Amino acid sequence: MRIRVLLLFVAFTCTFQVAFSQGKYEWKQASAAGYTYKYVTNDPMQTRFYTLKNGLRVILSVNKKEPRIATKIAVRAGSNTDPKDHTGLAHYLEHLLFKGTDKYGSLDWAKEKPLLDKIEGLYEQYNTTTDEAKRKEIYKEIDRVSGEASKYAIANEYDKLMASMGSQGTNAHTWVEETVYEEDIPANALDKFLTVQAERFRYPVFRIFHTELEAVYEEKNRGLDNDGNKMSEAMHYNLFPTHNYGQQTTIGTIEHLKNPSLKAIREYYNKYYVPNNMAIIMAGDFNPDEVVKKVAQYFAYMQPKPITEYKPALEKPIAAPIVKDIYGPSAENMRICYRTPAEGTHDALMLDLISSILSNGKAGLMDLNLNKQQKLQSSGSGLNQYKDYGIFILTGTPKQGQTLEQVKELLMGQLEQLKKGNFDESLIKAVIANAKLGEIQGLEGNGNRAEALMTTFIQNKGEGWNKSVSWLDDEAKITKQQVVEFANKFFANNYVVLYKRKGEDKNVVKVDKPTITPVETNAGKQSAFVAMVNNMPATAVIPQWMNFEKDIQKGKLGNASVLYTQNKDNQLYRLYYKFDMGGWNNKLLPLAFSYLSFLGTDKYSSEQISKEYYNIASSFNAGAGNEESTVTITGLQENFGKAVSLFEHIIANCKADDAAFAAFKGRIMKVRADAKLNKGNIMKGLSSYASYGAKNPFNNALSDQEIANITAQQLVDILHDLMNYKHTVIYYGPEPLAKVTTTLAGLHKLPATFKDAAPAIKFARTTQNSNQVLFANYDMVQSEVNWLRNTSTYNADKQPVIDLFNGYFGGGMGSIVFQTIRESKALAYSTYANYATPAKKDEPYTIMAYVGCQADKMNDALKGMNELLNNLPQVNKNFEAAKLSEKKDIETQRITQDGVIFSYLAAQKKGLNYDPRKKEYEALDKINLEDIIKFHQQELANKSYTYCVVASDKKIKMDDLKKVGDLKTLTLEEIFGY
Fold first, then answer.
1. E strand or H helix that includes residue 134
2. What is the pLDDT of residue 15?
3. Inter-axis angle of helices 589-596 and 712-721, nearest 10
4. Going by fewer Cβ within 10 Å, which terminus of the chain is more open, N or C?
5. DSSP letters spanning 584-633
């Protein structure tokens, strides 16, 4: 069985690859509680595959590690099946499935329906009208009637309902072959969940459409600002000149976005949202016999219909390289892309193995020959597998002074090494061993299980699950000779090269802002259906509290403290050396850790070290934070001694390598230059400037001259001296504490007395006494705004109110901020607000709010968020839903494994010696809406803020920002410190 994370840019997904089954992975049939199901022998997930009478698939995997269930309702329909004249339709529909039905989401369906029917008719007129003046008149009428209809609509009732039952991660995604609706529910909310979902798909109502349409416009414009998204679209378009993978984008064309048809959306729903084209997938804590019976009862109303599968014409072979340039403001990079065969084929199996032979993060050809030797900035490979075809990708980013064409030649060179067989046969065994280790780790999470089952349903209705679980065994049978023969046959001049160059994209055409009158959300109202669901009985889930004295064993290793929890589930271990020092104590420490991965010793080269770790399916990582640093060693317990011993040898005996260091310095300078091209990093820098002032953690960087003056030996000396500083040893694994400390005593040499680290740099927080605007100019379609204000220092007694306030005010799709900014006013696709809790007891809380919107909406967005910061709407139903959600989150949360230890350390930083969730849970019932209002008035209302704005000065007016507060335009040097 194989879980692989893929390079998908429009919507995140992962895939379970499939292959040819062996005898021990066979389909069997069984019956229980009156239902027949199929299963695959030796499936580690023990999955049951049911097909109900109406064709609905029910796919179940039991995992009782916590009282929660990851659920996915998957539909085998995506942008592939969009009508040619209505691209983006499947994605529109996904958004509309959150709007309710005639039973919920409405105050009065009889009065609402005629208005919605009128809106549908108006959109049909709008869709077919070409005269711009007439279109504006029609849209004006759409806006007016939509305002009338909204008086009967309850916005976000679905989201609030799911939050009330304790669901987490309420979301959905659309991609080329799928639309999937996702929830993570408490195990005791199963009946409520099925009641809601059965109703949700019975007769969805497309209400509050024009504001949701605007959210999709915003999503489109965000994509126009994302160079990675542009690369993905270009990759698909050029690899698939015939198939809808390349000819229909998931978000849709601007022309089609501007001309939606509610009638076409309804037709699409009726055609594809039928039981024989859908699956209900669950992984978690439940009785499968009971679940399938409940699903059958709740969804019995669904009637099957014939489904016409998308049958594309075969793509013609790519006869010669196709080369395309993509332009945008972010750092340069490139891809070499090959079109690959369908899922389930032997070629797909072979290409998956080859992707790991080339690049596995440790010991692949590209890892050793390119990344380790620093011949470029970075490189990697991967396989994106779809149903009909796949995409094999080689990626590379240039180092300083290197062209994209040179990067391409380096990547192609590694394919030549593959074709010549210049790799060890043992690498294949190591790939399989590491993949099996990853499989063990993946099985621990309900989300991983559900994701894998969802993918096999989308690709082959689950019929290939036997091949999925045999995947790694089948890869293990592949020989080096077979790999070489396949590579020479497959990798020819049949590829697409994409060069992401820095420059202006002259093809960007943003979706214009229509005039939208804010709609009514009826935030305090509730439908009878929702009241009924909320009143359904549910078996209580008893919360479990951590007891740090009982749950954590403590020991000593020399003069180092040891914290221990036992792994009773499998043979995985995680060992940590945790230091109370970081980059604020020594600016060179983060560089020393980064340099370590390029160093060898007197016994091993850097490449040999990577191979050694990969061969024993183990790894180590060393990273420095601001005031802490951690070395992590992981793997199977049987290799514990080898893995730890090798690390101890490396850290004590690594040798300075001047050639590697010169290349390393070049990489540092390139990373620093690339960071200035990333709008996300720019916003982080602005926010740090707002929170700390001109001298802040973000720009606490070495100057170019300081980097030039560093020597390789300086960094190696830091590494050699590392274990002489105070650190805590943390172990999670199957061995008892006494045995672990005995083993480590012979491996981890400690000094008689620890050295004291240099004091950490202290950064003073700012006080916002008047409004200020920090602006950074960036070539983008959208504008992004962060509000920031530092407040009082941490107070554990305040925490229950703060956490409840966050859930009520700005923490999700049912929050006040989301409902107002996005649902009512259609000002943004993404918006939130949070009263952020500090990590340490002597640090302040920080108010943070965010809106990412079209540049021409920025002024309205500023006004809208400021109104909420100053005047908090009082909606009792929302408050009660937020309280229920918070309680159920705590009730069903299970902090286990080494999470207990890290929770203990986090509590210590705040001056606590107990599980803070217990006090919060006990306090929640005593908090009322008046407490939240009072907190808002004291901490947020009518206060001064620093506004951090990243936008193009060609698309917004500086005078508008000056009206908000004192304007300061920051240079990149001021933001980044170099």
1. helix 132-150
2. 30
3. 90
4. C
5. TT-TTHHHHHHHHTT---SS--HHHHHHHHHHTT-EEEEEE-SS-EEEEE
Give residue 1's pLDDT.
36
State the fold for domain 3-21+317-449+461-502: Cytochrome Bc1 Complex; Chain A, domain 1 (3.30.830)
Instruction: Find where tokens 């956490």 sit.
Output: 803
Distance CA 436, CA 444 (A): 13
Which pLDDT belongs to residue 28? 97
Q: Where in the chain is the domain with CATH 3.30.830.10?
A: 3-21+317-449+461-502, 549-656+711-745, 772-976
CA angle 941, 944, 949 (to 5 degrees): 115
Class in CATH terms, 549-656+711-745: alpha beta
- Chain segment 387-418, per-residue pLDDT in tens: 999 999 999 999 999 999 999 999 999 999 99
* pTM for the whole structure: 0.92
Name the helix (H) or strand (E) containing 658.
helix 658-675
281 versus 828: which is more confidently predicted? 281
- 127-159 in b/e form (b: 16+ CB < 10 A) is bebeeeeebeebbeebbebbbbbbebbbbbbbb
Q: Tell me the β-bridge partners of 512.
A: none
Given a cut of 90, whether residue 545 has pLDDT beyond it is: yes
Question: What dotted CATH number matches 772-976?
Answer: 3.30.830.10
Single-letter amino acid code for the residue at 572: L
Host H or E run for residue 867: helix 858-870
How much is the average pLDDT of 655-681? 95
* Phi, psi for residue 725 in degrees, rounded to 5: -100, 150
Read off the pLDDT of residues 30-72 as tens digits, 9 standing for 90 and up: 999 999 999 999 999 999 999 999 999 999 999 999 999 999 9
Residue 229 is encoded by which pair of tokens? 């998204």
CA-CA distance, 193 to 164, in Å (whole number)? 11
For residue 811, what pLDDT is reported?
87
On whether the CB atoms of residues 556 and 742 are closer than 8 A, the answer is no
Token couple for 766: 């700012």
Q: pLDDT-derived band of residue 812, with 50, 70 and 90 as boundaries?
A: confident
Torsion sign (Cα): 477, 482, 487, 490? negative
Element at 854 (helix H, strand E): strand 844-854
Average pLDDT, the chain: 94
The span from the CA of 167 to the CA of 118, in Å, is 35
Torsions phi, psi for 649 (to 5 deg): -65, -45
Could you give the CA distance from residue 867 to residue 888 in angstroms, rounded to a whole number?
A: 31
Q: Where are the beta strands (DSSP E) in 739-843?
A: 772-777, 782-793, 830-836
- Rounded Cα–Cα distance for residues 710 and 12 (Å): 40
Where residue 477 falls among pLDDT bands split at 50, 70, 90? very high
Position 813 scores a pLDDT of 86
107 and 525 Cβ atoms separated by less than 8 Å: yes
Residue 422 has a CB neighbour count (10 Å cut-off) of 12
Our CA dihedral for 165, 169, 170, 173, rounded to 10 degrees, sits at -160
Q: What is the sign of the dihedral through the CA atoms of 422, 425, 430 and 432?
A: positive
